Amino acid sequence: MKIVAILAFGLLVTLANAQGNYKKVCYFANWPYYRPGAGQYGVDKLDPFECTHMIYGFAVLDKITYEMVVYDSYVDIDLGGYQKFTGLKTRNPNLKTLIALGGWNDSAFSTQYSELVSDPAKMANFVSKALAFVRQYNFDGLDFDWEYPGDPDIHGSWENTVDHHAPLYRRDYEIGKEAVIVSEAVDYWLAQGMPAQKLIFGVPSYGRTFRLANSSQTGLLSPAIGAGPQGPYTGQDGFLSLYEICNYQKSGWNVVTDPTGKMGPYAYQGITPLSNAITATLEGRPFNTNTPAPTPTPFPMTTTKAMTCTSEGSYYADPANCSKYYRCVNGKVVTYYCQSGLVFNSAINICDWPYNVPGCA
Ligand SMILES: *[C@@H]1O[C@H](CO)[C@@H](O)[C@H](O)[C@H]1NC(C)=O
Ligand SMILES: *[C@@H]1O[C@H](CO)[C@@H](O)[C@H](O)[C@H]1NC(C)=O
Ligand SMILES: *[C@@H]1O[C@H](CO)[C@@H](O)[C@H](O)[C@H]1NC(C)=O
User: What start and end residues bound the annotated signal peptide (predicted)?
Assistant: First the structure.
């Protein structure tokens, strides 16, 4: 079983305008607050000088009123998320802070955004309430982040071959074929008259992973049979964050770079391989914008009778093998193994990096 992942960069950067000013627009996501261990972060960790514009994701549309509302009142309000975020401007007065409405989770599967923009009465109400929202919480603006169907990554594990998720340039094997290419999308916008200084070029900071069909075929366009395993922090099939990929890379994956420099690298690894490639996309928002909190996962292998189940859903670390753990599922003990390079961390019930688990490093 092999896996390949494709990675891209961190932030939304931009095309510089003629004056040499440029916007470096960054998204802040509120849900990594719930990630385990080192994956946990909140507004407190932001550097107010990192970007020229920072966007807080996400507020959502109220299902009944079609008005913009707070999504996670605990993180956004009770813990002071909004307030601390806009407060970054006290340290960097040139910073602009915006609130994003929508995102993948709220807008990609719903007809609500179409219903809103096609109804003038709903729109008029939305606009006045959105303006009040932005002012109430002291944001500088609103990012209307409607990710309508068809908007996401260009390639990923829903396909049966491995490829970069957002190719910047057309590759030789795409010449003369229909293909979505990021640089060509930029050219298209410019050709249609969009001023360059109004184009924001998105660079996704995550990778897509694939499980390879044949362990001898590890390159791009190799046959794939589904998504790679979940990362220890982000907990989503076929997806890894930049920092998860960096850790895998340090743990010895094979990194393959493109000698022509057209494409970013990818990586793969023996048993649970992965590839990551640095690519860029015009679509700046992380594809997994509303990644659910991670769940302990890995691969169910066998059931065992050696233990007895006392509490449904409970986890038990194997005392003799750091990568092995058990869980009570429907009254039975099920044995699991963490993916290669990870060990079970019983403090947070998740497969984790060995250095986070005493005795397993
Ligand atoms: C796996 O790939 C190798 C190298 O391309 C090839 O020789 C072999 O036949 C493939 N195996 C299967 C089962 O397709
Ligand atoms: C994503 O949307 C679903 C359905 O509305 C909701 O139940 C879930 O809490 C959302 N998750 C996040 C992280 O936004
Ligand atoms: C833990 O279990 C895995 C899967 O059976 C095995 O490959 C590995 O060698 C074991 N590690 C130790 C330290 O026994």
Answer: 1-18
Q: In sequence order, which residues have a C-beta less than 8 Å from that of residue 246 and are 6 or more positions away?
A: none
Q: Distance between CA 5 and CA 13 in Å, rounded?
A: 22
Ligand 2 centre distance from Cα of residue 60 (Å): 10
Q: Interior CA angle at 331 toward 328 and 332, to 5°?
A: 65
Residue linked to tokens 């660079």: 203
State pLDDT tens for residues 203-228: 877 889 988 888 888 888 988 888 88
Mutation test of ligand 2: which of 290, 291, 295 has the most ligand atoms closer than 8 Å to its C-beta? 290
Rounded Cα distance between 345 and 323, Å, is: 9
- Between the alpha carbon of residue 94 and those of residues 19, 88, 140, the distances in Å are 17, 10, 11
Asked if residue 283 has pLDDT above 50, the reply is no
Handedness of CA 60, 9, 350, 355 (dihedral sign): negative
Q: Ligand 2 pocket test: which of 61, 105, 291 has the largest number of ligand atoms within 8 Å of its C-beta?
A: 105
pTM summary value: 0.67
**How many other CB atoms are there within 10 angstroms of residue 86's CB atom?**
21
Question: How far is residue 339's CA from residue 272's CA, in Å, rounded to a whole number?
Answer: 7
